[in-house]
Amino acid sequence: MTSLWNRSRFTEPETITSCFKMSAAWWKTPEEPLILSSLHVDMTEALDFIRCYRETTGHAITVTHLCTKVLSMVLRKYPQVNAKVEGNRILRRKTVDFTLMVTMDNGHDISGIKIHEADKKSLSEIAREIRDGAELVRQNRGPTFQTSKTIVEYCSIALVKLIMKCGNLLVNKIGLNLGFLGFPDDPFGSAIISFVNKHGIESAYG
Q1: How many CA atoms lie less than 13 Å away from 198 in the CB half-sphere?
Q2: H or E element, residue 69
Q3: From its phi and psi, is residue 133 left (phi > 0), alpha (psi between -120 and 50) or beta?
Q4: Angle of helix 123-138 relative to helix 63-77, nearest 10 degrees?
Q5: Tens-place pLDDT, residues 43-99
Q6: SS3 for 111?
């Protein structure tokens, strides 16, 4: 007898990472206009600066650290860009904060660390905070998203969708402080910074 269900070509994964669950819960069909752009920059002088900075200070800074500092300076100079849209309101952020994505579990999962007031910190301070935060994330002791990450790991994708929808309503729309439950206010800050080149990717949009 022929079955109407044709699933012989598929298998369900044994485990689903928290990153995949959150992506499946968060991504949806666009309901509003979205503009994506890219900017190519000649990094010759920047790489020379990084090399000289390392030799002078002994601090192992990277392109990611330098880009974080440069972007913070741009947003401090142009604060009107450091804003978000909630409903019919434009809300300008009072601080320049960034979330940097960190790979963990040998690249099978990702999490993030949040750098607060990056524009007020030196390049060395930013580099140290990113390194220390990444180490904590890889030990499952991340200071920003570990609580919500732990909750997500024990939930189905359907339940994660409901949790994130409620969290978005309570935190972003109503303005409640649910940081103790793993829903920090403005969780990603002014921008998300991710270094994708080490994965063999030249350009990425998100």
Answers
A1: 10
A2: helix 63-77
A3: alpha
A4: 120
A5: 999 999 999 999 999 999 999 999 999 999 999 999 999 998 877 888 899 999 999
A6: strand
Contacts of residue 129, Cβ cutoff 8 Å, sequence gap at least 6: 113, 115, 121
Helix, strand, coil percentages for the chain (3-state, nearest 5): 45, 15, 40
User: Which residues lie closer than 8 Å to 201 by C-beta, 6 or more apart?
Assistant: none
Per this entry, what is the length of the chain?
A: 206
| Sign (positive or negative) of CA dihedral 191, 138, 43, 69 | positive
What is the reported pTM?
A: 0.77
Please state the separation of Cα 191 from the chain's center in Å. Answer: 8
The two three-digit tokens of residue 183, written as one number: 């829903």
Contact 123, 146 (CB under 8 A): no
Cα-to-chain-centroid distance, residue 181: 18
